[in-house]
Amino acid sequence: MLDLRFNALAEIERPDTDTRTAFFGSVYGNLGLAAGILQLVAVPLALRFIALRYIHLTIPIVHFVSSLILTVSPSLRTGTAAYVTFKALDYSLFRAGKELFYMPLSYDSRYRAKQVIDAFGYRFSKGGSAGVLELVRLGVGTIAGAAYSITAMVVAALWAPIAFGLTAMYQQLVKREET
After folding, report:
1. Is the CB of residue 64 less than 8 Å from the CB of residue 153?
2. Is 150 exposed, middle or buried (0-12, 13-18, 19+ CB in 10 A)?
3. For the whole model, what pTM was predicted?
4. What are the residue boundaries of the structural domains of the chain, listed by start?
5. Could you tell me the CA-to-CA distances from 98 to 3, 91, 118, 125 in Å, in that order?
6. Among 57, 79, 76, which residue's Cα sits nearest to residue 68?
7. Alpha-carbon distance 107 to 38, whole Å?
8. What is the rounded distance in angstroms from the CA atom of residue 167 to the CA atom of residue 55?
9. What sign results for the dihedral spanned by CA atoms 104, 51, 159, 151?
10. CA angle 97-103-105, nearest 5°?
11. Could you tell me what percentage of the chain is helix, strand and coil, using 3-state DSSP and rounding each to the nearest 5?
12. Contacts 24+ apart (CB under 8 A), 149-153
């Protein structure tokens, strides 16, 4: 949702295609830099000193807060900040944290679980959300820009307790295997 809002704000504030392309190049360059710094500096520290369940809870909280700021103060600046913050965390901390979930599994189970989640879970959720958005658009005509960031807030509010519950189940599983 944030990427749709971000792209729409960029199109409004940078109507010239070449200017917008240069802007996106700069944003994605900075996003890669931020994700790289997080991956090399913040992720090792976070994984060492913060429980995995709190790392996974932090991600929807950051998503919620950045979406709230974008909803209250919609601009290309806040849209860019929300998008880059979420994606930098997604590319670094969330992916590293997600990989740790697979560690207790056997090699075969790990490979199969990752395939199912990566190949079907992510693609189905992206396709499903695109389908829902299109149905909403067909029903109402034009979707207001704020609806994207509000939807992101709702999803983050649903995501947080699910992540917290799943990480509790993961901790119980790991404790059982250790004993």
Report:
1. yes
2. middle
3. 0.80
4. 2-178
5. 22, 11, 11, 17
6. 79
7. 28
8. 10
9. negative
10. 135
11. 90, 0, 10
12. 149/1, 149/2, 149/5, 149/67, 149/68, 149/70, 149/71, 149/74, 149/82, 150/67, 150/71, 151/1, 152/1, 152/2, 152/5, 152/63, 152/64, 152/67, 153/64, 153/67, 153/68, 153/71
- Residues sharing a CB contact under 8 Å with residue 153, sequence separation 6 or more, in sequence order: 64, 67, 68, 71
Amino acid at 52: L
Please give the Cα distance from 70 to 86 (Å, whole number). Answer: 12
Please write the tens of the pLDDT for every residue from 2-55. Answer: 888 999 999 999 999 999 999 999 999 999 999 999 999 999 999 999 988 888
Token duo for residue 59: 């991600």
